[in-house]
Design a protein that fits this description.
- The complex is a heterodimer of chains A (301) and B (259).
- Chain A has 301 residues and is of the alpha+beta class.
- In chain A, 22% of the residues lie in helices and 25% in strands.
- Chain A has six helices and 16 strands.
- In chain A, the strands form four sheets. Chain A has a five-stranded mixed beta barrel. In chain A, strands 1-5-6-2 form a four-stranded mixed beta sheet, with no helix packed on it.
- The radius of gyration of chain A is 22 Å and the shape is flat.
- The N and C termini of chain A lie far apart (54 Å).
- The relative contact order of chain A is 0.11.
- With 259 residues, chain B is α+β, with helices and mostly antiparallel strands.
- Helices cover 32% and strands 28% of the residues of chain B.
- Chain B contains four helices and nine strands, in the order ββββαβαββαββα.
- A five-stranded mixed beta sheet of chain B has the order 1-2-3-5-4. Chain B has a four-stranded antiparallel beta sheet with strand order 7-6-8-9, with helices on both faces.
- Chain B is globular, with a radius of gyration of 20 Å.
- The chains are: A alpha+beta (301), B alpha+beta (259).
- At the A-B interface, helix 6 of A face strand 3, helix 2 and helix 4 of B.
Chain lengths: 301, 259
Amino acid sequence: MEVTDVNIRLACDRICLPAVSENEVQKLFTPGEDIPTCAGFMRGHGTYTEGEDLKASVAGVKEQVNKLISIKPLKSRYNGEIGDVVVGRVVEVQQKRWKIDTNARLESVLLLSSVNLPGGELRRRSSEDEKMMRKYLQEGDLISAEVMNVYQDGALSLHTRSLKYGKLSQGVLVKVFPSLIMRRKNHFHSLPNGAAVILGNNGFVWICPASGLEHQEDSGSAGGFIQDLEKEVPKADREVIARLKNCILALANSKMMLYDTSIIYAYEESMKFTVTELLLPDVMVDVANLTQHRLHLDIAE
Amino acid sequence: MAGLQLLSEYGLRVDGRRPNELRQIRCKMGVFSQPDGSAYLEQGNTKVLAAVYGPHEVRLNRSKTHHDRAYINCQFSMAVFSTSERKRRPRGDRKSQEMDMNLNQIFESAIRTELYPRSRIDIYLEVLQADGSNFSACVNAATLALIDAGIPLKDYVCSCTSTLAPSQGGAPPTPMVDVNHVEETLGGPGLNMSTLPRLDSVVHLELSGTRLHLSHIDPVAEKASTGAADIMAVLDKAVRGHVAQCLHARELSGQGADA
C-alpha cells in the first residue's frame, strides 16, 4: 500500500515576517489617536471628529493631499471606484438585474441594460429578454466586469459592455485581500508561460489558459457569454496554472503587492520547487523573499 | 483550598503578583486567512481566538438589517476543553445568550456603524482555555480582530476585571486587578469593566459573584479602569508592530511597480 508523505511542523518553528526598526513607525495612527492638523482641514476616510479634534478610527498610514487628511487601513473590504476591473460571482437573478458578489460591503448590481445581448444587437430590452436572463447568467457563474457607477450607499453598478468582459469559463479563482492589488492601466495579462491572468481590483484573481482569453475576444458576435466547457485543457497548461496559483498565494501570504512583474518573477523563482512543495509555509516565505530580492535588483538598475 | 488566602501577608496574590499587576498579555493579529479580521490573545493562561467577518450584505433574513447603520452580531462560545472538566456547552443556552447581548451592546457603541447602512458585521469568539477574566479577554481579542479587519472604531475597547480581597488583620480590603480562575471561584465580587480608554468613557460594567458595598465600588472601579488603560498600552504596541511589519513588506514589493 502506498503511503503519501505527511509533513508535520512545530508551531514554534514558524517563520514570521522580518522585524522592523522603530523609526518607521512614525506615520502610523491607531484608533482613537489624535491627528495633528492644520487649520481648515477636511476629514477623509478613516477619521472622525470629536469636538474640535480629529481622531483616527482605523489603524493605518496617514495620507494627506493638501488639506484632505485620511487614514488608509491595511486591510478592508473592497471599496469600488469607477473604472475598476472586478471579477465577481452571480448570487441572485432579479427582475431586471443580477446581483454579483465582489467582496465589497454590499452586493454589486449588474443591470440588464449594461450587458451585451448575444448577437451584438443594439435594441431596447423587452420582456422576453428578462425571461432569458437566466440563460445568460445563472447563480454561481463567474464574470469579469468594469465598475460603471457607485450608488450613494456604496453599492457598485457594473457593466460588461466590452468584448473583453463577460462570463469566465475554465480556470482557477484565487481570493486575496483587495489592498494587495495595484491599480494599473491594464488588468488583463497574458503571461509568457502560456497562462492568462485577470487581476480584479476587488481581490479576486482569475487564472486561465491563454487560449481562454483569446477565445473570448474572437467570439465577437457572442458578446462574451459563450462558455466553452467541453474544451479539454492539456496537462502542461494545468500545471502552469496550479503553479501560478501557489505563487500568488505565497506572495499574498507575505503581504506583497500583486502585479504582472511580481507574478512573473515569483513564477520563475518557484521553478526549483515542485508544485505541491509550494504549499508549505517555509517554501512560500522563501519564494516571496527571492521575488522581493529580484524586484529590488530591478530598481537598483 | 482551606486556608488559601487571596492576599498573603507579604502583599502577594495566589500566583505571585502584586494587587495592581496585570498578567502577561501576548497577542497576534491576522492569524486566519478566511475571515476579514482575526486575532489571538493570551492573558496569562486565558486563551481566546476572535474572528470578524464583514461588513457584508445580509443574505437570507432581510429583516435583521437597519437602514441607516450596520447590524452587529457577536457569538461567544467556550471550547469543551477550555475548563478543567470537559463540559459540553450547547450554543444557544442562556448564559452565552447573555454574553452575546453584552458583547453586542459594547461593540455597537464602539464601532462607527453609521458608515455601513444595510450591512452586517459578525464577530465570533472562542475561548480555548479559561483561567478567569474570560469575558474581558474576549472583548480585548475582538477589538484586535476588528482593527485587523479595518473596521473603523471610535477607540480601543479594553476590558478588565477587578475584585476585592477581604480585609485581614485590620487592614482595609485591597482591590486587585485582573483576576484569575482561583480568585474568581474563591468568592468575592468580580467587577468587569469595559472602557474606551482614550475617550475616558465606560461602555459596560458588570458585577458578579458576591455583593459589593457602596463604599468599595469607587476604589475597585478605579482599579479596573487603570487596568484597562494599561491593557490598551499593550494592545496599541502590538497593533503598531503588526502594521509596521506589513507596511514594510508591502513597500519593499511595491517599489518595483513604479519603475
